[in-house]
Amino acid sequence: MNIHPAGNLLLRNLRLCNVLSRRCALTGFRSCAAHIQTHGFAPLKRQNGSPYCLGKHFDWTTTRFHFSEKTEQRIPSAVFGNEAENGDVHSREISGDSAPSNGRSSNGPIARNGSPSAEVFITERSTERDKSLDQFFDRLQRCTSPSDVLDLYVESAATRRPISSCLMTMWRTTKRMAEDQKRYERKLMFEHPGFETICQQAVKGAQSMSCNDLAYSLFALVKIRVSQHSRLVHTLLRVTQERLNEFDERALSVLSSCLKNLDDSKSVGALRTGLRLLVEIRVPQIRTVIALQTMMRCIGKDAPLPLKKKLESKALSLLKEFTLPNSQYMFVTLAAMGHRSHSLLEACSNRVIENIHGVPFWRLVHVLQSSKDLQYRNPALLSAIGDHVASTPAIWQVKQFILFLVLFADLSFRHAKLMDTFAQIMPAHSESLTLKDVLSVLRVYALLNHQPATSGKEQFLQTLSDVFEMYLSKCSSLELLHGIYSFCLLGHYPQAALSQLFQEDILSELQSKDFEVAVDQERRNVVPFPQGDAIGSDTNIQRVAVLCTPVSAFCLGTRHPKERLALKMRHLEALGYHVALVSEQEFGKLSEDERVGFLKGAIFAG
Fold this sequence. Notes:
mainly alpha, 3-stranded mixed β-sheet
C-alpha cells in the first residue's frame, strides 16, 4: 500500500511528540507548553489527489521547560538507550545551551528539521554533554575547600554548571573545619576571581532557577557568610518572594532553615510572613505526617499561637498514622516551633516507650534534648530510656553514657540504676575521659546529690580524682574551682587539687572585680592599710568595699539589690564595711574622666 509522503511526515512527528513526553517525565520536567498545530496545513502541489501536507508541525517557540539541576544530572545516558535502537532519538538538552534551569525556549535543530540525520546529530551532542556534566559532578564531590569548587567552576567545560550544587559544596567543605581555618578559607574564597563569576551567574539565572535551587543557593550563601546586604542575596530574596507559592515542602523547609540565620529586615520579615500564610493555607491539604511535620518546622518559634494550634489539631487528626520515626521526630518538630503540646507529646512518648529497644542512640538524644527545650518532663519516658541504657551497658560507649547522664541532669531526673551502672563501668575506661567529661560527671552526681552504691563509691570517686589531677596543669582557675566544689559536695577532698586552688596567684585570679579601700573616718582621704588586724580596732579608719555589679543583680528598673547581692552587702556591713555599688552597665558608658568622678562620688562622702 502506498502512503502519501504527508502521512509519513505526520507519523514521524507524532512519534517525536510521544518520545518527548516520555522523556520529560524521566528527566524531571514539570511542564511542557509545546503545542501541536492540529490543523496547521499549508498548500502544496496535488499528489495522489491530496492538496495539503502538514506545514508547521510544532510551535517550538512556546516551549518552556523547568527542571532541577540535580534531577537532570542524575539521569544517566543509558536511560535512553532503547529509544536509540528504535530510531526515536532526541536530545535531552532540548532547551538549548543555556545555564541550569534557565527556562528558555528551545530553538535547536529539532524545531526546524525532523530528519533522521538531525536526530542523530542531536543525540551525539546530548551524550557528550551528559558525560561532561557527569565528570563535573564527580570532580565536585572530590573538592575539599571552597577554592577547589571555584577552580572547578572556572575551568569546567560543562555548558551547564549547576550553581546551587557548587554553592552547597562550598559550604559543605567548611562545615567541619575549625573556626580559624573557616575564616582563612572564607578569605581565600572571597578573593578568588571565580567567586565573582559564580555570583554574577547566580544573579543572571535567579529568575529561571527551580524552587529547590533557589532555596539551596540562598541557604548556602547565608552559611558561607555572604553579606545579607549584597546584590546577590537581595536578588534571591526578591525572586523567592515572587515565587513562594510554587515552593514545595522540601524547598519550604530549606527556606525556613535559611531564614533563621538572616537578620531582620523588610525583605526577610515579608518572606517570613508570607511563609506562615502559605503554611496556614496549605494545612487543610496536608495528607501525610511527614508533610505536616515539615510545615510545622517551617513556621518557627515566633509564629502566632493560633497557627501553632491549627497545626497541632491537624497532627492530632493524623495521630493514628504516626510511625515510630514520626513519633520520635515530633519531639524535634515541636521544639523547632516552640510549642509544648501535652497531647501530642504524651501520645508520642507512649509510642517511644513501647518500642524503646528499636530506637537508636541519636534519636534518644534528640528526644531528651527536645524534652529539655520544651520543659517537658515525663517520668515514664525518662525511666524507660534510663532502664534501657542501664540494662544494656555493653552496647554503649562511656561518652554516650555521659551524654545521657547530662541530659537527665538537665531535666532534674535522677535515674539511680543508670548512675550506679556508670559508676561501676567507668573505672575500667578512665583513660578515655577528657577534662570536660570529668567535670560533666562531677556536676551530674553533685547536682543530683547521688552517692554511688557503697561497694564502688570510693573507687569511683578516687578514679575521678586521679583523672582530674592529671589535667590540673591544663585547668583554668574556674574549672579548678568548679571541680573541687563538686568533689566537696560528694564528700571527697582531692589534696593535690586543693593545694593548687589555695595558691596565691589562683586565688587572686578568682577574685572578682570588687576591691577594698581604706579611708579616714570622715571618708574624705585614702589612708594606708594597717598591718594585721589593726584595721579592725582603729576607729579612725573606715573600710569601703566597692562592688562592681551587673544590671541583673538589681530589681528591674531600680538600684534595689536582689538575693545574692543583698546577702553579700549585709555580710560586709556586719563586718564593718561601707558598701559602694558600681553598676557595670552605667560604668561602661562613661569616659575615663567621668569614671574617676563616678568612683570618687561612690567612695568618698559628698
